From TrEMBL:
Residues 66-77 have a biased composition (Polar residues). The keyword Iron does not apply. This is TonB-dependent receptor. The lineage of its organism: Bacteria, Pseudomonadati, Pseudomonadota, Alphaproteobacteria, Sphingomonadales. Residues 103-207 form the TonB-dependent receptor plug domain. It is found in: Cell outer membrane.
Length: 1003
């Protein structure tokens, strides 16, 4: 540890000098006297890093596993060099050797994952495989426990570009990243993770470029087929759900035509328990609110002339909303692929392919929630950081919530690729693709939510208490139940209607792209030149009952609450039982109420609709004084004009690159250089409106309604151009030891949804939590100067040790801050003063430096079948987040965390077993929480340390038939997050374990 620390410190101490060096200056490392001549020595196989770097002839060359290197010979002979002792090896060890060959022979810094055989990828999820690589860690969906995204060297989400066979993928989510749970892994051929850019492919990722390669007919000429079937069981869901897949490939007409088709159906059912705090807003307490105060009256105010005990002068944070829920998720995914190839001669290869995916995630949610207002808190006890660790609140309402959520993400991409070897030295490639993605197409309702409960006269003097940090315990509440009667916590006799919310996000993303490359190869020199054009159009629209204020139609909880509206009691037929909250999150401390109710929000909504049209007749319980105008009994969504956004982004890129091979003394040197220019033109169109009147609901004093001016279109145009150079050097010091140096400049564009030219104020607001959001159409991309210095020792076949030091200087950071501002002078009825909105917006901010080291070790123990992979990544930055600086909001490098992975395996005689241990330290995920209304800007969200153990195994019953099993999260790891300080719990998800058993047959 001491040696590593000293090594990193020595590297970091030179970061300022390195940051000022242009990447092209690295060419000066090759002295003028260096001879670039034909390299002598052993010949290694030409292993492509990306699928689209091959010639037409190479594209038609079979990928024959019989060329896999020996596992019997442990001598440090170069990868791929045959020996008389060679033994043909397939399966996991063969895949690891191919991955090693790609890493070893690549000019830049590349890690790879290869399928063990057609239809046999190492993991059931692409992101799960990627996390085994050095420098790569994953983000999980809390509700499903599924890996959905990756972070590379501390840069996650939009900082990484994912390609299908070298092509960008459209995504209707509004960001640049993809959800890896939408990518079926069953029939993937391989994945390359480029940590340094290939300018002929892309330079639009500061983290890494992930290229997913799909199989094609001429990868394996002749007839090939594979089928797989499995069943998976999540321990809490309690039932088995299927995954089915089939792939068929054939070449015919004297191997001049080929077709491949695959289909996969995947289903995952997960029941997840969640305890949450929706946000920890920062604000000010008055001394009269504190525990031990002797004030007889407490009216917190900002009036500087008020009594000191009443003035809000004490900095602090409080929980906006607290609750628990069970989420029952059904995740269904359909993947289909067709690839046609025409190979009339060795000089020409034409490939036409289509990729289709459709993921439907349906979630039923049952829970409770209690709402807190900072002004209403009493007996407040703050810790040394200002967090309200205990308090009481009089009159606290209680909501029992139910929701039916659905998200459909559908993508279809069609591409045509032509490779023509004009001469033995000249190859021309043209590639074009059209893709479109839809979020919630058709008449899908994204979320149908019902809230019922009690409040008003039945509100309780609720107690709240924090006993430990967020990775150990959730907060405890006490004195719950109607008027503090815990025995009637879920008594239907006093439960009435509250609010009903329908909400649907409907996005589309249409992507057109074309790429042309000319390649010249002569002896030890390869030159490439070409261009790429992309046209991306993103459209966003949100529909909800917030827009027309129908969500408050029956708010008020009914007569027992003492308020003027709402229906109580509700029909007993609505209730379908309850879920116990006893031992809800095993291993976590904290106290919860006894249970939550199970009911259908649609049945609840249908019951309220059956009461009739309140405009045509008097309907008892309707909220006539809540500004619910136009409601005729039907809960229909209305389009939120402020959510309408259309962004068009056109990018023209030109690139030139070269590769040369030479020698420095007797040491082979491989050099690559390149430059890419990117010109981007943007047009964004939004819909703007301003608030005119805010009214407080008479039925529920926590709810607000807003009236607006007419909608007006607002548009903006912008453009930018950047030059992105790169250089890669690889020196073979000996047959087993090589050194690398890489320097480049890359960029990451802002998410398309951030480019909205409008500041939007939503209609669904709460007292003390007025908020809005706005984009910035003039945002410029993040820019990074990147440097890598690495040493790799391939000391025996299928084994190596590598150390890579990296540094990234990033400028133009996009700061997602929150400012408190008035909008149009509209008055807040709860204060009588101009309403103050917490407006979230983005601007380009300062720069930061990220540096770190990756250490990787792969060891195969001869022909024993045993081996392991181990890696660790250690990163830090000169701009860490300091939670004690109240004004520091919206800027810090996110995603940075140390991580480590270990995979131990046995692979011999048809039997394979793997144990994977994955660890990631705590990290700052980003700024902003579910309730983002604090006085100090966007509060942070941290993800706590995680450690997960997975097991996989398979057995080849025959040459063609195998069975396999998988046990995920056997140590029952939980995902938890916190706010500015460790005891500010935001979420804890317990998604349990998953078991899979299945079979494969290939012929």
């Amino acid at each position: 540890m001491v040696a590593r620390t000293a090594f990193v410190a020595a590297f970091v101490s030179r970061r300022t000098l390195m940051a000022g060096v242009s990447p092209l200056m690295a060419l000066a490392m090759v002295s003028p006297g260096t001879a670039f001549a034909q390299t002598s020595g052993a010949v290694r196989p030409d292993v492509p890093v990306q699928a689209n770097t091959t010639t037409a002839q190479q594209a038609g060359t079979p990928q024959d596993q019989s060329t896999a290197p020996s596992e019997a010979d442990n001598s440090p002979s170069p990868a791929g060099e045959a020996t008389t002792a060679d033994i043909i090896v397939t399966g996991l060890r063969s895949s690891l050797q191919r991955n090693l060959d790609i890493k070893r022979t690549a000019t830049g810094v590349v890690d790879a994952i290869s399928a063990e055989d057609i239809g046999k990828f190492p993991d059931s999820n692409v992101a799960a495989s990627l996390q085994r690589l050095p420098g790569v860690s994953i983000q999980r969906s809390g509700a499903r426990g599924e890996p959905t995204g990756i972070t590379v060297r501390g840069f996650g989400g939009d900082f990484n570009t994912t390609l299908y066979d070298g092509r960008r993928i459209s995504t209707a989510t509004g960001g640049r990243q993809i959800d890896f749970s939408t990518v079926g892994s069953d029939f993937i051929g391989g994945i390359s993770v480029l940590k340094t850019p290939d300018v002929s492919l892309a330079s639009s990722s500061i983290g890494a470029t992930v290229d997913i390669q799909f199989p094609k007919p001429f990868d394996h000429p002749g007839f090939r087929a594979a089928v797989s079937a499995s069943g998976s069981l999540q321990d809490r869901a309690g039932h088995v759900v299927p995954t089915l897949g089939a792939l068929v490939s054939d070449t015919f007409a004297d191997d001049t035509l080929g077709i491949l088709s695959s289909f996969i159906y995947t289903r995952r059912d997960t029941d997840t328990n969640r305890v949450f705090v929706s946000g920890w807003p920062g604000g000010n307490f008055a001394p009269c609110q504190l525990q031990g105060s002797t004030a007889t009256v407490c009216r917190p105010t900002f009036d500087p002339n008020a009594d000191p005990s009443q003035r809000r002068t004490l900095t602090g944070w409080f929980p906006q909303q607290y609750g628990a829920e069970q989420q029952r998720t059904q995740d269904e995914r359909v993947d289909g692929r067709v690839a046609l190839q025409w190979h009339p001669s060795n000089d020409l290869m034409v490939t036409l392919d289509n990729n289709f995916s459709r993921q439907t995630i349906s979630t039923d949610v049952y829970g409770f929630g209690v709402w807190f207002s900072q002004d209403a808190l009493r007996n407040v006890k703050q810790d040394a950081n200002g967090t309200a660790v205990s308090f009481t609140q009089a009159g606290s309402p209680t909501d029992f919530t139910a929701a039916m959520n659905k998200q459909i993400l559908q993508t279809n991409q069609t591409g045509l690729n032509v490779k023509w070897d004009v001469t033995e030295k000249l190859t021309v490639e043209a590639d074009g693709a059209y893709a479109k993605s839809w979020l919630n197409p058709g008449n899908t309702i994204g979320s149908s939510n019902g809230d019922i409960g009690y409040g008003g006269a039945l509100g309780t003097n609720l107690g709240f208490n924090i006993t430990a940090d967020s990775n150990k315990a959730f907060p405890s509440i006490s004195n719950f139940g109607p008027a503090g009667n815990g025995g009637r916590w879920a008594d239907p006799a006093v439960i009435g209607s509250h609010v009903t919310v329908l909400q649907t996000q409907k996005n589309t993303d249409e992507l057109k792209q074309f790429r042309g490359v000319v390649t010249w190869k002569e002896d030890n020199i390869t030159l490439k030149a070409g261009g790429q054009y992309t046209d991306d159009t993103f459209n966003l629209l949100n529909r909800s009952t917030f827009t027309n204020n129908f969500w408050q139609a029956y708010a008020g909880y009914g007569a027992p609450s003492g308020q003027g509206s709402g229906v109580s009691p509700l029909p007993s037929s609505l209730y379908q039982g309850s879920i116990s909250l006893n031992n809800f999150i095993p291993g976590f401390g904290g106290t919860l109420p006894p249970s939550v109710l199970v009911y259908s929000p649609q049945a609840y909504q249908n019951y309220l609709t059956s009461l009739g049209n309140p405009q045509a007749q008097n309907v008892p319980g309707f909220n006539y004084n809540g500004g619910v105008n136009g409601f005729t009994g039907q809960f229909t969504e209305a389009v939120d004009p402020g959510s309408i956004l259309s962004v068009n982004e056109k990018t023209l890129s030109l690139f030139f690159s070269g590769k040369m091979e030479g020698q420095i003394g007797s040491m082979p040197l491989h050099a690559a250089f390149g430059v890419r220019t990117e010109n981007t033109r943007l047009r964004s169109i939004g819909q703007g409106r301003a608030p005119t009147v805010i009214t407080r609901s008479a039925a529920d004093p926590t709810l607000l309604s807003i009236a607006f001016t007419d909608v007006q279109p607002i548009s903006n145009r912008s453009s930018y151009t950047y030059v992105l150079p790169s250089v890669d050097l690889r020196l073979e010091v000996t047959d087993t030891l090589q050194l690398r140096f890489d320097a480049s400049r890359t960029l990451t564009r802002p998410g398309l949804s951030l480019l909205n030219p409008v500041v939007g104020i939503g209609n669904g607001q709460r007292v003390g939590a007025l908020s809005g959001s706005g984009g910035n159409p003039n945002l410029k991309p993040y820019l990074a100067s990147n440097f890598d210095v690495a040493a790799e020792w391939y000391y025996q076949r299928n084994s190596y040790i590598a150390v890579d030091l990296f540094l990234k200087n990033v400028s133009n950071f996009i700061v997602g801050g929150v400012t408190n501002q008035t909008v149009g002078g509209v008055i807040d009825p709860t204060t009588g003063n101009p309403a103050v909105f917490a407006i979230t917006a983005q601007v380009n901010g300062p720069d930061a430096t990220v540096r770190g080291v990756e250490i990787a070790w792969q060891q195969v123990f001869g022909d024993s079948g045993f081996g392991f992979q181990a890696n660790g990544t250690f990163v830090n930055t000169n701009k860490p987040y300091d939670p004690k600086i109240v004004g520091q909001s919206g800027f810090a490098v996110t995603g940075l965390a140390n991580s480590a992975n270990f995979v131990g395996f046995y692979d011999k005689n048809g039997f394979q077993f793997r144990t994977a241990l994955n660890w990631r330290d705590e990290y700052l995920a980003g700024f902003g929480q579910n309730q983002n209304t604090g006085s100090y800007g966007a509060e942070p969200t941290f993800v706590n340390q995680s450690f997960q153990v997975d097991l996989t195994s398979s057995y080849d019953v025959t040459k063609n038939f195998s069975i396999f099993g998988e046990a995920l999260n056997i140590n029952k790891n939980k995902q938890s997050t916190h706010g500015r300080f460790k005891n500010q719990l935001l979420d804890v998800f317990d998604y349990g374990r998953r078991f899979t058993l299945g079979a494969r047959y290939r012929f």
